[in-house]
Amino acid sequence: MGTIFTSIIEGEIPCHRVWEDDLHLAFLDIRPLQPGHCLVIPKREVAYLFDMSDSEYSALWNAVRTVERKLRLATGCARVVVSVVGWEVPHVHVHLIPTDELGDFPVPAPCDFDVSRFESLARSIQEAGE
Predict the structure, then answer these.
(1) DSSP H helical ranges for 19-117
(2) How many domains is the chain partitioned into structurally?
């Protein structure tokens, strides 16, 4: 069984489409953080952004750029915030949220992290996969 986004792509669940090509669909989020909040999704169901092939990944970001331009022009917002969370629905989706100031997007508070661990964490990341 596919995700809710696959059902939207297939027309089984209605949405407010704002843009589409052969590989992607953009539609209004049903729980918007700001008016105009859109989701851009690949039509091929992939659960995790970084599991996409290089060509799919590049094509997705080109689609995101296309929708961002349309959204900014339509809303007159100063900036469009981009967010990829990836936990809500196991189907890659990029949130585009029109904003006029930082307060328009709820930025999470930083975690409580022991700064003495920065050096060892940075080294672990640098050496990972070598």
Answers:
(1) 54-75
(2) 1
Distance, CA of 10 to CA of 71 (rounded, Å): 24
For 72-86, the DSSP string reads HHHH--SEEEEE---
The CATH number of the domain holding residue 92 is 3.30.428.10
Beta bridge partners of 81: 97
Task: Read off φ and ψ for residue 87, nearest 5 degrees.
Answer: -105, -25
pLDDT at 1: 66
- The catalytic residue among 24, 37, 91, 93 is 93
> Cα(76)–Cα(97) distance, rounded to whole angstroms?
12
What digits encode the pLDDT tens for the residues 82-121? 999 988 999 999 999 999 998 898 887 778 888 888 899 9
Q: What percent of the chain has pLDDT over 70?
A: 99
Count of alpha carbons within 13 Å of 92, Cβ hemisphere only?
21
Please indicate whether residue 95 is annotated as part of the active site.
no
Burial of 118: CB neighbours in 10 Å, binned 0-12, 13-18, 19+: exposed
The pTM of the full predicted model, rounded to 2 decimals, is 0.91
Q: Is the pLDDT of residue 130 over 80?
A: no
